[in-house]
Amino acid sequence: MQRLVDYAQSFIGTPGVWGGDNPYTGFDCSGFVQWVLRMAGFGLYRDTTAQGLYEMHKAHVLSRPEAGALVFYGKDLNNISHVAFCIDDLFIIESGGVTPSINLSIDDAKKNGAGVRQRMYDFRGDLLIIVKPQYSF
Q: Structural domain tally of the chain?
């Protein structure tokens, strides 16, 4: 699991771009998490949203974060708006700061602080659920 955490951390500072799905053009939240999960052998489709990622992994709910878990945020479990990757029991890595109404270029994203960053998992007031993908390693 440490290799996957290290891999996720290697993208800190990558710009955040709405609809972004790779480190070369930038990530949105679900694009970032899918990129990391691909390293772990999950074959996901890029158009999977935060809601879709929850639907794929919702059978494995955790009461506390741990390395490799996914944390979901939003209005309720049918209206998930954000996903992040846990690196331990306190911190996540997310791609944040971009919304559909603020579709920034890479340069604008950098100026506005939109991108991949590390935060405490409970920094937002809309934390919904923590789930753990079933990794094969």
A: 1
